[in-house]
Design brief:
Layout: E1 17-23, E2 26-32, H1 44-52, E3 60-64, H2 70-78, E4 83-88, H3 91-103, E5 109-113, E6 125-130, H4 138-151, E7 152-163, H5 168-179, E8 183-188, E9 191-197
Parallel strand pairs: 3-4, 3-6, 4-5, 6-7
Antiparallel strand pairs: 1-2, 7-9, 8-9
């Protein structure tokens, strides 16, 4: 069976490439490789999520399933007085995310190899952002919502991008069950951006 990008140690032969992207009007460079999500450049869903994000400039942000780092690194630029923690199970993605933070001069990040939330369970965040690993299955995606709720500070928000055809309606339902309410912030080419706030 072929590796998925949510494999801890991808076996795919390395094929490193450098891509330039413009996110939130910021010019960024990203090293990518085989065995990680969206290796040919920043995917459309992540772009839609990044454009929708509304974060206080001192926010503590968690990027779940960070891949090589486009969402988390852009978020770090948006929260100059805050801090972004980036987590992924994929060791190759984590190495790339660390390199990409340096490449883009981003210092207010911590990158951790973590199976879902195992390395951050003692922390609290003002925002959790995720382009969840749909191929890992609905149970994993819903765990990101359920366990993430516990890590949010009161008033904190979870931001999720998900395609309608890949389960956006059921994701919205689960977010509503966990958080009590969910807002569809925007939609673009079948991608939905959901924001769910942990009530005070």
């Amino acid at each position: 069976m072929a590796d998925h990008y949510f494999t801890r140690t991808p076996g795919a032969e390395h094929n490193r490439q450098l891509h330039e992207s413009q996110l939130r009007g910021i010019r960024l460079q990203f090293l990518t490789d085989a065995g990680v999500f969206s290796k040919s450049g920043v995917d459309y869903g992540s772009r839609v999520l990044v454009e929708a994000l509304d974060l206080p400039d001192n926010a503590r942000v968690l990027d779940v399933g960070c891949g090589y780092g486009p969402i988390g690194i852009t978020a770090a630029k948006l929260v100059p007085n805050g801090h972004v923690t980036m987590i992924d199970v994929n060791e190759r993605a984590i190495e790339l995310a660390e390199e990409n933070a340096k490449l883009n001069g981003v210092l207010n990040v911590t990158v951790l190899q973590s199976d879902l939330y195992e390395r951050v369970r003692e922390m609290k965040f003002d925002a959790i952002v995720t382009n969840p690993p749909i191929r890992a299955g609905k149970a994993v995606v819903h765990r990101i919502f359920e366990e993430g709720f516990q890590l949010l500070a009161p008033g904190g928000a979870m931001w999720v991008v998900i395609q309608k055809k890949q389960g956006a309606p059921s994701a919205a339902s689960r977010l509503e069950e966990v958080f009590g309410a969910v807002e569809e912030v925007t939609k673009d080419k079948g991608y939905r951006i959901f924001k769910a706030v942990k009530r005070l």
